Amino acid sequence: MAAGGRTRQLPAPLARSLALGCAAGQAWEPRAPSRRPHLSERRSEPRPGRAARRGTVLGMAGSPGLLFLLFLLLCAVGQVSPYSAPWKPTWPAYRLPVVLPQSTLNLAKPDFEAEAKLEVSSSCGPQCHKGTPLPTYEEAKQYLSYETLYANGSRTETQVGIYILSSSGGGAQQRDSGSSGKSRRKRQIYGYDSRFSIFGKDFLLNYPFSTSVKLSTGCTGTLVAEKHVLTAAHCIHDGKTYVKGTQKLRVGFLKPKFKDGGRGANDSTSAMPEKMKFQWIRVKRTHVPKGWIKGNANDIGMDYDYALLELKKPHKRKFMKIGVSPPAKQLPGGRIHFSGYDNDRPGNLVYRFCDVKDETYDLLYQQCDAQPGASGSGVYVRMWKRQQQKWERKIIGIFSGHQWVDMNGSPQDFNVAVRITPLKYAQICYWIKGNYLDCREG
Description:
This protein is an alpha+beta fold. It has helices at residues 12-20, 50-54, 64-78, 126-130, 137-144, 201-204, 290-295, 422-433, and strands spanning 57-58, 97-107, 120-122, 146-150, 155-165, 196-198, 212-215, 220-223, 228-231, 250-258, 273-289, 307-311, 335-340, 349-359, 363-366, 378-385, 390-407, 410-419.
């Protein structure tokens, strides 16, 4: 705290790193001679101090500028270039922040009155989002605090603290304001419909398509752990209250439906599958960030449109891990992929891929063809995992909804995915594993 009780503010590049967790791991690259790289873009090799060698977790205290500068330097050291092998786009390695619960408050049982929305829309496009102020440290803690809903209808609110391994800091940064886009009629198919319906159990039951599941509220989710499903927050909460059916929320897994009641799993003579059906598992509890609940009315909620569901029992399928979203230019071919249960193709799993058109710190703008029902799909890419020497797919975002944007006076529409930033990764990973020590590499 500065004199007079005012909150000390960080220089802009340092505060940006708090919101992005080392700017989503983007490595420094040479710039044009006319532009001198800013301090936040330079690579440094600091000598770790005694606390860094111990790997202790230090709180956000002390001199914000100096401590957060140390965080910046640690991030630079902790990153591995995504181009370590020129022919293999490689997953960067990150030193991640830690998001830990501080206190939990019991809340009254909610009213499950909201209508399920299979999509969300916003007129605030890339320039608008780039022009909004980044949260202060206190605001970031509020947005990453979360609400938990249990199967019996009870709920809690958990306040969190944000910590950084071996360094600390905090503050805020203001960005220049931008103009918002214009709201227009929604359209989520761009020219020729480039979606692919996935048929046949040999595909539907195999990775990565088998990780896509259907929510009983009508959205899509993705298996990210043995008992956990990642989806969009608006699929279960409208920003004010929970949607109808959330208290008895179920997750559906496609399985073959056999004629004559044959099971087919271990019997080679059993009847052939006639079609696919959903097998449902009840949800034990859900987590929704307060950034969605507090900010849904003013577009900031779009940045926090994600939720995690914990199932009552393991699903026994291969799942896809989450990862920190690299900058768009580091994605293989600049493309993303996702599969979902679009409602214009009932009963079908629909796969698509497309180029990323623009990005902000929290969102990816693309024109993948999609329809309501695909919301909540896990957006993934496949890159080389240097440590294990293998290719690996990871979820780097959650498909959220649709936006009309005023681009230099010309209307343009995008579909939007919420990026998994280092802070969001730390939060979601803790929800899954319950131990920050298991969440140190994204």
